[in-house]
Amino acid sequence: MKTTRRSLLRSALAPAAGAFALPALSRAIQAATSTYQRPKLKITGLATAMVQVHGPQAHIRIYTDQGLTGQGESTDAAIGTPALIHSFSRFLIGRAPLNVDAIWEQLRRFGIFAGAQGGQYITALSGLEIALWDLAGKALNLPIYQLMGGKFRDKVRMYCDSDMKDPDGAEGQRKLPWIAEAGFTAMKMDIDDARDPARRDPVNRTATNGEIDRMVKQMRFVRDSVPKSIDLAVDMHGFYDALTGKRVAQAAEEFRLLWLEEPVPPENIDAMADIRRSTHTPICCGENIYLRWGFAELLEKHAADIIMPDIQKVGGLSEARKIANMADAYYIPFAPHCVVSPVGTMASVHVCASVPNFLVLEWHWINHRDLWANWVKEGEIIDKGYIAVPDRPGIGVEMNDEVAKRAQMPGATWFEHKT
Ligand code: MG
Hints:
With 419 residues, this protein is of the alpha/beta class. The chain has two domains: 43-141, 2-Layer Sandwich (Enolase-like, domain 1); 146-402, TIM Barrel, CATH 3.20.20. It is built from 15 helices and twelve strands. The protein has helices spanning 5-13, 22-33, 81-92, 100-110, 119-140, 144-147, 170-181, 209-225, 242-251, 269-277, 291-300, 317-328, 342-353, 369-374, 401-404, and strands at 43-53, 55-64, 69-75, 155-161, 186-190, 231-235, 259-261, 283-285, 306-307, 361-363, 382-383, 386-388.
């Protein structure tokens, strides 16, 4: 037999087969000789804390054998998070945490028969994935955006959700000047109102002329009450039918809205596309759509002018970034929904910094300003309507447990963790 370089190598390695098979040997040589040593972390435990601020939010902590921890946050469908994190921990404890996307993918595949297409499963996985990114950043001494390809911008534009029940009454008179003075360049108001006396049927989704007149009056009041330089978005929370959606979108055209949000529920993408084609008012949706596959349908059907994945439930930071890049291929802007604490919001900032088509990020704690300003040790993170992209490792903010505990959900545990 002719001796080649390959056969020589094979014969030289033959006695070492088994424990020293080529892949294992190659890994051992690489580990021993690489100048670039990664920290060899192991996950030792996971714990959760549930809070109730804008709906239920779950905070997730990952503990490691070297004292480093990571923290993430999930929202809305977060109520099942403690039980799901407990079930994920059987897979995670003892594992190296730095291959974030691979861990996410394995947990998602494990859950295919357990609802891993959306809802509570993906929401819990989102919070866990954010905690893994925080940990990876701290372990590698880099901010998360740097691990996501770097940043396109140094600060992220925020919009203020005004969270008003009474936009053209006392509440509007109090909040609207504050939004302008705080320096926001965009805001959002709600126009759905189940208590509207003009409503004829408490169940159906059809707004009467009286209800539509009230919506237009409120939009006009808010539009005229804040400077023209502040963009105005309007939310219908998916409470109406396609007929109403079209009528409201057309009636709103004179206000040149930043967007009209979820005129109809999110399940029927064709109905959303039909409304979009009927109006010049930009249509935005996506806060109740999960994963790349949900957004692939939305984009392929040209159903939205702007997409708004909720990063704390859509699948996490990597998933949101992939969705933003998919949208960019359709020249569609990315304006994430966000109702979480400064921890989750700052995690979202890293994604917003790392994609070209970012438009604006939501801030929804106007009714919880004291909690917001003290929730993390860094204090207030919004300055004149923007958040500076942080250069600290990981997410870049640390929860002040004493303050956050004020919002603890009754009966829920607070980061109970066995070592
Ligand atoms: Mg909404």
